[in-house]
Structure formats: structure tokens, C-alpha cells
Amino acid sequence: MPAISLAELRQNPAPALEAVEHGQTLTITRYRRPIANLTPAARTQVSGTDVMRLLSSTPVDEQWAAQLEADRAADQGPDFWERP
């Protein structure tokens, strides 16, 4: 595991962070003694199948359409989408 001194990390963090972004783990040292490890953040990926499974398991609100229709009927304001 490559090491980088704390002083070097303070002066120029970009190369170290770029290496970590590409999957490398760095050991941070102070006075040549390891004090911490800098590791890439865990990334989670969600597949389209997972999204579809979640959406299909979401309960349907049977009253939603009726509420929407009532709200639209009660709206007396101008239609901003209508062209002049």
C-alpha cells in the first residue's frame, strides 16, 4: 500500500485524491509512522431491474385520481401553459 506524508497531502492533495478515486488505498504517515488509511468511498449501483421491482411493490393510492380531478376542478387560476 503506497504511503503519503501528512505534510505532502496538505500541500498537494489532488494527486492523492485522484489515486484514491481510481481505487487505490493510501497510508497517511506522520514522522514516517502510519496514522490513517485513505480509501475509496463505497459506491452503490442500482439496476433498472431493482428500480422496477421497487416501483411494482409500491402500493397504489386508489383515491389519487379522484383527488387530482377535484383539485383541477377547484383551480380557478389562469392556465400558464395555454398560449395567448
Account of the protein in words:
The chain is of the alpha+beta class and 84 residues long. It has a domain at 3-38. It is built from four helices and three strands; from the N terminus they run βααββαα. It has helices at 6-11, 13-21, 48-57, 64-74, and strands at 3-5, 26-30, 33-38. A three-stranded mixed beta sheet has the order 1-2-3. Strand 2 (26-30) and strand 3 (33-38) form a beta hairpin. It is elongated and about 75 Å long. It starts with a strand and ends in a 10-residue tail after the last helix. The mean pLDDT is 90.
Give the helix/strand layout.
Elements: E1 3-5, H1 6-11, H2 13-21, E2 26-30, E3 33-38, H3 48-57, H4 64-74
Parallel strand pairs: 1-2
Antiparallel strand pairs: 2-3
Total E-strand runs: 3
Which stretches are poorly predicted, pLDDT < 50 over at least 5 residues?
none
Order of helices and strands: EHHEEHH
Strand content: 15-25%
Helicity level, as a percent range? 40-55%
Number of helices: 4
Outline of the structure:
This protein has 84 residues and is of the alpha+beta class.
Which features would summarize this protein structure in a list?
84 residues; alpha+beta; three-stranded mixed β-sheet; 4 helices; 3 strands; 17% strand; elongated
